[in-house]
């Protein structure tokens, strides 16, 4: 039996169901930022010839005008994305982009600031309409095991597009009078390229074609958020996503002044910080697929959160250790300054851990949300993102007004992130449990999952497995794409750490009839409820850990469970755990620890699902024995 093979996420770029969509969204992010950056740079360095308003008002007004449509129109755009076929909707948005960039070109050539401001608002509206389509398109075209890789590619593409757009916008417009017509032509040209790419996007049916659009955006926003809050995991993932935008806005908004005031750098130092951060996000987003084992691994979210706090705190200390030059320096000279590499390392690590944080959250929302409501859920999240970004600007102004320096603001943001993470993970312990399981199989052990695709993506099933050690459930949990309800000996719940893990994971305690008949009957009722609700339930039919390494006789309890709940039964076998420190091997515990060593090899083999009428304890025991083979 071979291990389930998963192609690399990069192979998606060769496939029509993903590549045209990827390049369409990449070109959109690139063009948005080319236009906005060119406009901000012109109004910062040549404000007098365009307007009598102060540069600081204008440079805050433009991002504000871009974000405003997210608040006003997200609820409506979410409904539109549900009601209409998605490839035609993307093409409509891309045609609109050409018109908007045409208006902007007219503004550039006639020196009309208000035409350009109108174009900024219109591009914000264009992005508001595209957002729900972008994230609801992927679950329709990608398999669940491709979602993390697909989201990673899209996040990487978006941030690289943003970065290149900002650099191009900056470079083109700095060419003085000649730069303006080049920017005007380039933005129209890239909009046309986006449209060409969109014509290759395959047909993607509407998820709710009969939906009646409610045009009141405020009432629909409230209804959307109320609906999303009904699915606790999805809603808290939305809040976690919005928190990332708060964190990012707090850090990124300070980069221009931080580069100029603290690093004594010119504009190229700001571009360097931005580049390093964007490359970090891109790398983190792409690494998610590798680290998640080709499934939606929400255990990466706490890992990302820890990194955001640690490297945010270190950015404060790195700023203190920077040797401030006497005069203004460029990016090349900044790299020669003492302490500069530590600052850049912290910025790139914040980006990488930001990728670990954001990509699994997007994938989880796409996986756990009702498909008919996904676009509206994404739209609701876009509203939350916009509000969180506005809040970030307000908090930054308040803290800086209280006399905080920018490095102190980095420190305060990192500490806030730690507190928010503790709060979110206490509300959804599944995140933390998956993190602990992920940590175990990526540090202490090297786990190979054979035929993981046999664990169903949805619907009820009973999983049965041999019982070798106290960490069996953690290994199975880490290998499964879905949460599992484990049926565990009630005594395990009394052990300090494992007891807490299994209680928070809603494991079902069970006891022998002679020891606690009431708890036994309650366990059967809880198992029946879980299976009725479409959950996965894992049972160890031996009833106790093996003391010899061999598989003990399967007890009759499994037959009673299957009789009550007619669900498919999936045999599984753990290999390589016998002799583990937490198994009941009689060998010396220290000898066992060293014999297995760090990164010891384990495997979980998943068998073919059996119909309930064929799954007797004897048949299941034989199936598990065959799956395990000679490797204990």
Automatic annotation (TrEMBL):
Instruction: Give GO MF terms, alphabetically.
Output: acyltransferase activity; transmembrane transporter activity
What are the annotated GO cellular component locations?
plasma membrane
Q: Where in the cell is it found?
A: Cell membrane
List the membrane topology term(s). Multi-pass membrane protein
Q: Keywords, A to Z?
A: Cell membrane, Membrane, Transmembrane, Transmembrane helix, Transport
Which Pfam family name is an example for this entry?
Answer: MFS_1
InterPro entries reported in the protein's UniProt record? MFS, MFS_trans_sf, Plipid/glycerol_acylTrfase
- Please give the SUPFAM superfamilies that the UniProt record associates with this protein: Glycerol-3-phosphate (1)-acyltransferase (SSF69593), MFS general substrate transporter (SSF103473)
> Key word Transport present in the record?
yes
Ribonucleoprotein keyword on record: no
Q: Where are the transmembrane segments?
A: 21-45, 57-77, 89-108, 114-133, 154-174, 180-199, 233-257, 269-288, 300-323, 343-365, 377-400, 420-441
Q: Which residues form the Phospholipid/glycerol acyltransferase domain?
A: 461-577
Q: What is this protein called?
A: MFS transporter
Q: Which organism is it from?
A: Pseudoduganella lutea
Tell me the organism's taxonomic lineage: Bacteria, Pseudomonadati, Pseudomonadota, Betaproteobacteria, Burkholderiales
């Amino acid at each position: 039996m071979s291990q389930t093979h998963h192609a690399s996420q990069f192979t998606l770029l060769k496939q029509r169901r993903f590549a045209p969509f990827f390049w369409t969204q990449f070109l959109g992010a690139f063009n948005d930022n080319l236009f906005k950056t060119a406009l901000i740079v012109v109004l910062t360095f040549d404000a007098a010839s365009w307007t009598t308003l102060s540069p600081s008002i204008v440079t805050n007004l433009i991002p504000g005008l871009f974000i405003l449509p997210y608040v006003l129109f997200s609820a409506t755009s979410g409904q539109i994305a549900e009601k209409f076929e998605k490839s035609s909707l993307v093409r409509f948005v891309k045609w609109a982009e050409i018109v908007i960039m045409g208006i902007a070109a007219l503004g550039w050539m006639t020196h009309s600031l208000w035409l350009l401001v109108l174009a900024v608002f219109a591009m914000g509206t264009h992005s508001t309409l595209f957002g729900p389509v972008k994230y609801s398109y992927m679950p329709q075209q990608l398999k669940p095991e491709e979602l993390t890789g697909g989201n990673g590619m899209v996040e990487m593409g978006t941030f690289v597009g943003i970065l290149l757009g900002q650099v191009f916008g900056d470079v083109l417009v700095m060419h003085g009078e000649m730069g303006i017509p080049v920017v005007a032509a380039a933005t129209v040209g890239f909009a046309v390229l986006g449209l060409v790419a969109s014509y290759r996007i395959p047909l993607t049916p509407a998820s709710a074609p009969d939906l009646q659009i409610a045009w009141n955006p405020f009432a629909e926003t409230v209804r959307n958020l109320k609906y999303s809050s009904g699915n606790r995991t999805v809603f808290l993932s939305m809040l976690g996503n919005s928190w990332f935008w708060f964190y990012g806005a707090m850090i990124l908004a300070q980069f221009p002044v931080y580069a100029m005031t603290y690093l004594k750098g010119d504009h190229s130092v700001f571009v360097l910080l931005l580049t390093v951060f964007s490359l970090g996000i891109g790398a983190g987003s792409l690494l998610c697929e590798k680290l998640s084992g080709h499934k939606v691994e929400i255990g990466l979210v706490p890992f990302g959160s820890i990194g955001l706090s640690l490297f945010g705190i270190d950015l404060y200390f790195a700023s203190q250790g920077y040797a401030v030059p006497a005069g203004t320096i460029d990016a090349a000279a900044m790299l020669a300054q003492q302490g500069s590499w530590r600052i850049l390392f912290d910025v790139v690590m914040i980006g990488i851990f930001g990728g670990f944080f954001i990509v699994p959250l997007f994938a989880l929302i796409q996986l756990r949300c009702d498909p008919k409501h996904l676009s509206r859920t994404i739209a609701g999240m876009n509203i939350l993102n916009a509000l969180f970004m506005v809040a970030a600007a307000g908090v930054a102004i308040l803290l800086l007004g209280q006399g905080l320096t920018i490095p102190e603001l980095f420190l305060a943001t990192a500490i806030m992130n730690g507190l928010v993470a503790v709060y979110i993970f206490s509300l959804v312990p599944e995140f933390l449990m998956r993190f602990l399981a992920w940590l175990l199989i990526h540090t202490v052990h090297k786990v190979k999952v054979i035929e993981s695709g046999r664990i169903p993506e949805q619907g009820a099933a009973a999983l049965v497995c041999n019982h070798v050690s106290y960490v069996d459930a953690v290994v199975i949990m880490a290998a499964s794409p879905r949460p599992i309800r484990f049926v565990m000996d009630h005594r395990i719940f009394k052990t300090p750490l494992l007891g807490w893990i299994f209680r928070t994971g809603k494991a079902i305690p069970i006891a022998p009839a002679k020891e606690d008949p009431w708890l036994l009957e309650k366990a059967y009722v809880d198992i029946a409820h879980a299976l009725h609700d479409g959950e996965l339930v894992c049972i160890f039919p031996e009833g106790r850990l093996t003391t010899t390494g061999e598989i003990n006789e399967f007890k009759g309890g499994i037959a009673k469970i299957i009789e009550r709940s007619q669900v498919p039964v999936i045999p599984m076998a753990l290999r390589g755990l016998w002799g583990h420190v937490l198994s009941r091997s009689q060998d010396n515990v220290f000898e066992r620890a060293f014999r297995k060593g760090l990164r010891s090899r384990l495997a979980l083999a998943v068998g073919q699902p059996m119909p309930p009428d064929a799954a007797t304890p004897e048949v299941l025991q034989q199936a598990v024995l065959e799956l395990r083979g000679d490797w204990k």
